[in-house]
Amino acid sequence: MSRLQAEHLYKVFGRRPDQAVQKLENGTDREELRADGTTAAVIDASFTVEPGQIFVVMGLSGSGKSTLLRMLNGLLEPTAGRVLFDDQDLTALSPRELRDVRSAKISMVFQHFALFPHRSVLENAAYGLEVQGVPREAREERAAHALELTGLAGWEKSWPDELSGGMQQRVGLARALATDADLLLMDESFSALDPLIRRDMQDQLLELQKRLKKTIVFITHDLNEAMRLGDRIAVMRDGRIVQQGTAEDILVRPANDYVASFIQDVDRSRVLTAGSIMEAPEKGRSHKDLVAEAPATVTAETPVAELFTPCSTSGVAVAVTDSDGGLIGVVPRTRLLAALGEEPQIDEVPAAATGSRDTKKVIASA
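RE: above sequence
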């Protein structure tokens, strides 16, 4: 069962929004509505997020990604469509019921820290629990544990202005974790940080996710960040989701020229995996012998970047094995080099491939 589900969400600002939705459904262009003083911020957005998954929504400024995020927890009411959280329709809840869900089950981490300058680090981390009415001793204990998880043990009594930007963002993350919410919504949470600190925060999030298995919706305009963090990625443009899939799907099969322009500078060796480029083992030879001769054994999830060294020092293929050590494929040097230089071709495929109602162009895998 999906943890979170968005069904044909629309958000229209301006006059007669319901009529605008009907026009959009009938094929009216977004720019035509804008000429009438109506802005369609999100148009027919549908997706699902599985438990324990990091779902990344990426797009340029004005693409509608932050508006979409705010509909997921009811900060913005959809003009049309539904949001289901654990099969509960959030769009049908009363304001009080929605506040109860937000305070206990959904936490948000903002781009600009949103810390209270007059509260200590511990008090900031415990704020969500204070809102819930958790007794002081219990909330401070949970907040201290959350700060420890985010690497801030020992800073509990400090003030926010004594912390670096990265440390302040860790406090914001600790505040979200302290509530033990099932769903984390992260809106450009690392984009205000310096590159090195930003990567450190990405590492921190991935490490926390291994232990906590939270369900996360992460908003970003940075494709490299999206590809590094996302189990699945949705790419938005002009209010619409133009493609959904894994990082590998989007890199190898971009849905259109817009998505292709995003991925042209991505380091394919960091996204493609051994499993995506491996070949079938050589016929007539035992798998045991092939594994024994291989310069290295890797799993299907191993990034291609980690295959260069073993492939460069041996003419024998690298062995790809399963969790039990059984051989499932090989990566010879020629296949490694070819995979990095493959030129995909544009094809027409059914709409289901991109998560849209319309037929889209996709680039077929080589």
